[in-house]
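Async update (no meeting this week)

Hi team, since we skipped the sync, here's where things stand on the single-chain job. The sequence we agreed to prioritize is pasted below, unchanged from the tracker. I ran it this morning and attached the output directly underneath so nobody has to dig for it. Comments welcome in thread, and please keep replies under the output.
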Amino acid sequence: MHDTHNEKQRWLYSATVKDHFFHPRNAIREGEEFIPDGEGLVGSPACGDEMKVMIQIDSDSDRIKACRWSTFGCASAIASTSMLSVMITENEGMKIDDALKLRPQHILDRLGGLPDRKVHCSVLGDEALRGAITDYFKKTEQINRIPAPPTTKIICACKQVTDADIEDAVLEGATTLDLMMKKTGAGTGCGTCIGDVEELIEKTKEKYFSGNNE
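Output:
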């Protein structure tokens, strides 16, 4: 007997996510010869999703003219990478400087949102693209264009947990103080940072999850 209730519980995605999962765009095909100008790899199949993004650049226009990718992961990871590839190649290709400004929220908007626990998939795509662009800059000796790594701030001195660590943990599901403590150890020492940890959890949730599917 077909359980429609359980089916709805299993698929909490927009029609756009479903479309890009079942019909991914620009995925590398077996045997396809694609020589990238830059490639970026993030994640690990051992602990979850892994994304590889490969780009070709039109050096005259400084636009991304083609993209191929491969993803090991869930429906959200596949759909996020597929949508990202469309966004950076549509309309004659996105300017590299504009591509560097892409953030997870932009991918989420085009997908129609993701379940909160899957938002980290769009963040991986964002990071893989920046890795591919950085690789291109290195290969073409445009060292001055390589984006600076994001600065981090120590939030929990006892456990040496940074704001980036907390943001990553929230995206991976640690959306309460108790879950954050278990995942990162933040706030489990002297406890003076707990207020800051809670504030950063809420800011990260508002930043990434606002308006997304539950």
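Quick observations from my side:
The two ends are 27 Å apart (CA to CA).
The first helix runs from residue 4 to 10.
Reply here if anything looks off.
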